[in-house]
Design brief:
Largest sheet: 2 strands, antiparallel
Number of helices: 4
Strand content: 5-15%
Structural class: mainly alpha
Strand order of the largest sheet: 1-2
Mean pLDDT: 85
Order of helices and strands: EHHHEEEH
Low-confidence stretches: none
Shape: rod-shaped
Number of strands: 4
Length: 174
């Protein structure tokens, strides 16, 4: 890493996206609302069935209005199940959307870091702190260290003894 820009806002956006993702994941993985709606439907169906049995045994034991209300209660419970399933499906989509927000926040953070493709050291700085830099502008010069070229003078007698292309370590002036 050669330089890093202030990424506080991007970091905060990442944290917010991660929290939103956790909320969506919890909602998507929870089927409590569906279970509650199914229980409510089962109770409503049982009430309607008992009332219909009572009417079969004794005519007018339950009024038509009451039977209509019990049927409505069953239908509402069925709709509540559908609504709970819709909320769960929507939460799964929200989870995908928030994962995208996390990916986008990570990309913004990565864009706040200036990296070099070379292994080396910063040799020259062309910009001052706080100065505006456009994409493509050279802000730094990096000197590559993994390859080094050396030049030197060698006597003919050393070349004959060691042979061309061979390297001999010497101490001092030898």
């Amino acid at each position: 890493t050669l330089a890093e820009l202030d990424s506080t806002e991007a970091q905060l956006a990442l944290v917010r996206a991660q929290i939103d993702h956790s909320i969506a994941k919890e909602t998507a993985n929870s089927d409590v609302e569906i279970q509650a709606a199914k229980k409510s439907r089962d109770v409503s169906k049982a009430d309607l069935k008992r009332s219909q049995l009572a009417v079969d045994r004794i005519k007018n034991a339950v009024s038509e209005t009451q039977l209509d209300r019990l049927k409505l209660s069953v239908e509402r419970a069925e709709l509540a199940i559908q609504q709970a399933e819709l909320v769960q499906r929507t939460s799964k989509l929200k989870m995908k959307l928030t994962q995208n927000d996390i990916d986008q926040a990570n990309r913004v953070i990565d864009r706040h870091i200036i990296k070099s493709s070379l292994t080396g050291i910063v040799d020259q700085v062309n910009r001052q702190p706080g100065e505006w830099v456009k994409p493509g502008d050279a802000g730094l010069r990096v000197r590559q260290l993994d390859r080094m070229r050396c030049e030197g003078a060698v006597s003919d007698s050393s070349l004959r003894r060691n042979g061309p292309g061979r390297i001999r370590k010497s101490r001092g002036g030898r």
